[in-house]
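Dear Dr. V.,

Thank you for agreeing to look over these. As mentioned in my earlier message, I'm a first-year student in the group and I'm still getting used to reading structure tokens, so any feedback on how I've presented them would be very welcome. I ran two proteins. I've put each sequence directly above its structure. The first is here:
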Amino acid sequence: MEKRWELRDIPNTDYLESLSKELNINKDLTALLLQRGISEFEQSKIFFRPSLSHLHDPFLMKDMDKAVNRLCEALFSNAKILIYGDYDVDGTTSVSLMYGFLKSFSDHLEYYIPDRYTEGYGISTKGIEYAHDNGFQLIISLDCGIRAVDKADLANTYDIDLIICDHHIPGEQLPKAHAILDPKQADCPYPFKELSGCGVGFKLLQGFCMQNSIPMEQLYQHLDLVAVSIASDIVPIVGENRVLAFYGLKKLNHSPCPGLKALMEVSGLKNEIDISSIVFYLGPRINATGRLTHAHDSVRLLTAENDSETQAFASVLNAKNSQRKDFDKTITEEALSMVEEDESLKLAKSTVLFKNDWHKGVIGIVASRCIEKYYRPTIILTESKNKATGSARSIEGFDIHEAISSCSDLLEQFGGHTHAAGLTLPLENVVAFRQKFEKIVSETINLEILQPKLEIDLEVDLSFVNYKNYMIIKQMSPFGPQNLKPLFVTKDVKLKFPPKIIKEEHLKASLYQDGNPLVYEAIGFGLSEKSEDLLNHEVFQVAYQIEENTYRGNKSLQLNIKDIKFD
């Protein structure tokens, strides 16, 4: 699908000259900082040199004092504590962090991950019953629980205290828990609202360490898990998340926990691990067990301490991920065929598809694949326990949670974020839901956003591509939501040699500009269809990121082309 290019504004241009001089960098690099909200020298120091001292005081979070006091009471009285977490990457890393840290303070800890298929998302009745039957007096829920009103009531009837650590948006009614840690509560004064679920769990442990004079370095040993959660849960990598991700990646690259080390090995990761490495290699493997069987396999890996255990568990996760890819490919092909064979679906402003035998564990991935093809709000539904259950994914600029909420009369339950949500409804309501959802999307969506956007930071000449600039850009990492890797556009570009096609889908080209003697090597993944147009046009525009390529031990810069336009 043709992309629309949008050049980002440079705010606060009044600061361009002075900040450029203060930092001794060129104006293009300074413009990148201004676009990231950095207009003063002190801000740039914090940005380029994140420090763990920049983390906020955990006791600024509502209920933190209650949560820490209850945790201390449980630990020091040898009470049984159940650590409960969701089955995705954020949930399993949260549980691994909490369990891995607290087990040196208690022999009465256990963890519990609900089964995606028999219990569903969040705190389950079965989980509360398990805690009651096994004498647990405290449950710490991680990455879930903020909407578990009835489950909190059930826990209260059993005299089980509940500490909820969540980062999702609360409903109108809060659960009656002993303590609720969620910075998105309307009356929570915590200054950073975008922590991952694992990040909220980390803040609880930070508070615990502060109250008990435990060296913080003990907790920082687990920052690799926090970084994996931040990357995989696609939270903004700004503020506190940026600090946690920065130090978590350092830990991941230099001394990862045994489980993550084994997972890196089976993933074939050899270069420096960054946010993208987690998103594309580690996260899917951790997720795969919860999608296909049971996520406790992931927690076993992430909390294992010896190499023989970790290698065995990592191999299991790797095998599950391969199986997940097969399901994903088959179901995506079926879903795309359903759209292609139905003219009304092709012309719709949304995609809502249902098939009763699709694998529940991969429908979220399939929704994302459908967006890659049709770029519109998408919901993929399957049958589970005589209900239709589904995963929703959105496009930039459209709040899919709000649109689903407008169809709540047809649903049994739903929850999630602006860009992703889950829902359950009676099978007989599927057709009515599809019609109503399409009507709401058609009436509320801005048609312009149905064309994918490529947001470009700056227009530069190819001479900008050099190691001096690249090394400064690299210091702007970790890159992710709200701090994306800079994207540049260069006009009046020419081909030095005919382009090559690699593996039938990727484009390799040598580029230059008049007046510049240098030739720049470029790769465009999935852009092989642009090859003929390149040969037919003398000049063109390229949108690209600058990256380092290592080949046979030699390092060089290359352009990673994201799109090409022809005048």
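The second protein is here, in the same arrangement:
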Amino acid sequence: MIELSSFHASALWSHIVACYAATLLPLVVGLPPIIAIMESVYVMTEREIWRQIARYWGRLFGIALLMWAIGSIVLIILYAADPGRFTRHLHGIPGLALTLLMTPLVFGGGVFLWRLYTDWLGLGRLQHLLITWLWMLLSTLSALKIAIGYGLMDNPSGAYLDPGTLQVWIHDVPLALLNPAAQTRFVHLVGSSYLVAATLVLSASAWYLLRGRNVQIARRSMTVAASFGLAAALSLAVLGDRDGYAGSPGQQMRIAAIAGEWHVQPAPAPFVLFGIPDPDSRTTRVAWRMPWLLGLGAMHSWRKPVAGLDELEAANVERIRRGLAEFMALDNKEASSRAAGSNAAKVGANPDLGYGLLLLRHVRNPLQRNGDEMTAAARDTIPDVPLLFWAFRAMALLGAYGIVLFGVAFWLASRRQLDRRGFLRLAAWSLPVPWVAGALGWLVSEAGRGPWLIDGLLPITEIQATASEMAVAAIAYTAIAGLFAAGAILSIRLVRLGPDGLKIWPVDSDATKKY
């Protein structure tokens, strides 16, 4: 009989890596392009102030890189020690995944020391600029690795389930790497990291201007952050949902839950801007709909209908029934051994087996199921609708706030009116906004997968983890929280010191000097 004994541990690691990506990774990915822009201006203009600006924000990047490097090492050690680690169930590209993780880590160690002491190691302007741009490219590899992993979990393109061992194998590596869900997540992860970094520079610069400190550095930094942040915020709005989200049943279920739609919406499908989703009555009360928006956003078409939760659940009942038939066939040991001995036979041979395994939540032996248990298993495929509904709208609202904030910042910078104190106060207090939005995005991602570890292939059939697995997970969560707190404390101290306190730039003799 097939057993699923440690999927819950893998789910814990999915949440841990999500926390890591939401807290420690954004500045490591987002700050390098901003610093590269500043250094590029220095190379083109040969104005010393731009070199000092790049050196100062480079020190802040050094703190973020140190926390990220330590966190990566800690997670790798704990990941290897956890018996329920994710790689126990997914095989085929572990070497590539390790390379994508370790390459920027190793390179980052040297860059961190170089950035921390800001000595530039005697390098010329152009040489230093090339290294900065190179790090910008390398830092995105960590985001790419995370995007590929979670893309496979959301849409297991190029993967199949081994019916003999219940392991997921990648049989088509190019197809897995070019997974539309992974591409979408990569664009969204990089864009959100850019927005976080731009907000940090904008907020810290606004704090300096409010206090009349480092005015020349703060104005120039704020101008770069305004332009870069506006581009990042607009790219998230335009490209954040690009491709892949309607490519699998699980993604369709997530879209329907986010939209709060229980029935098929004919094309062009409207989007519920506001409503009160009620899972008990399976309706969304007080629904305010905007025409066409759901069809254009989810399907990128005004001609395709969008499936509702009821219809998707009914389709899953049929898939569970087919998966149960596959499960019954695999109960024969000889058939299982033959399947386990032939990779060709396994690829695509049991496409609905994972749905049949959903019954393990409700009955010890799926062969002893009844109609009510099959209906309950299908209902499990519906995620927490109110949670996704409100988390997505809160994330979108914060994203809209970011567009307005950076739009106003760009307009004021273009008119050289960044001294408006009302806006400076708003910018200074906006620092946590992109982090909160990013956390909400990861919440939508993880909760939207519902009962699946890997959508359609591996269900999470146990909700209890062993004591050792919970201990390792607790250590990992604590390590991430501790590193984030340490990085925040060091960054705040660095910002309070400022370029003048660090002797990077002399205190401005004329705080009102224009540039």
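From my reading of the second output: The mean pLDDT is 79. The radius of gyration is 25 Å. Does that match how you would interpret it?

Kind regards,
E.
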